[in-house]
Amino acid sequence: MYAFDFERPTTLADAVAALGKDEAQALGGGQTLIPTLKQRLASPSVLVSLSGIAEMKGVCVEDGAVNIGGGTTHATVASEAAESFPALAALAGNIGDPAVRNRGTIGGSLANNDPAACYPAAALGTGATIVTNTREIAADDYFQGMFTTALDEGEIITSVKLPIPEKAAYIKFEQPASRFALVGVFVSKGADGVRVAVTGASEEGVHRWTAAEEALNGNFAPEALDGLSVSADGMINDLHGSGAYRAHLVAVLTKRAVAQANG
Q1: I need a surface site. Which of 24, 166, 190, 214 has the fewest CB within 10 A?
Q2: Are strands 129-132 and 46-49 parallel, antiparallel or unpaired?
Q3: How crowded is residue 115: how many other Cβ atoms within 10 Å of its Cβ?
Q4: Whose CA is closest to 198, among 228, 226, 178, 173?
Q5: Listed residue (136, 116, 104) closest to 207, CA to CA
Q6: pLDDT tens, 179-209?
Q7: Looking at the whole model, is its pTM more than 0.70?
């Protein structure tokens, strides 16, 4: 590590002001940023912790959507969304281990946009709205590639609105050491149709599988996906799995997610 200033504001306004300082960096649960600092891959002069801002925490249901504060931990989402949105609660309850779930936050995960993270699949798979201190961003516009989002410098995710679908499920094939998704698929069926979001597979990060969506809009059943496959081009190819293997998993896990969503 190295020397830096640390600030822990208690209001959103104070956090925004603190992030206006030179080389300031927001700190959510620290599950990604702290290891990054230890490896000297980032060196902000000021860390601005968002953990003390009460207005950025909590889970509630409003207008047919689950509204989650950006500073809400995975463990809180797992417990407080269990009744209103079981698929989302199950996703949150299977992130990392208890230590990660009790420190990591939904806002931090979405801001980081790790290509193997789970929450981006839920956001894109439901057509969520990312709410910041300055605007609202549709999930389809928010995710812009691996570790890349529509957030401007100093912009803070204050909450996330995830529409509650008629049916939904998330299936993850875990990388056993990290419990990140080697491939994860979130499927939802709502009033606006079916959405299928894939994480962990592509070099472009989380994305929608539109061919599967079209097939499932006609028949929301696993057999509607028979004959559909995903190209290995552009898939992540590493020591955990080849691009072809990940492409195969996308098709398999999507079928499983649809079956699970149907109960």
Answers
A1: 166
A2: unpaired
A3: 22
A4: 173
A5: 116
A6: 899 999 999 999 999 999 999 999 999 999 9
A7: yes
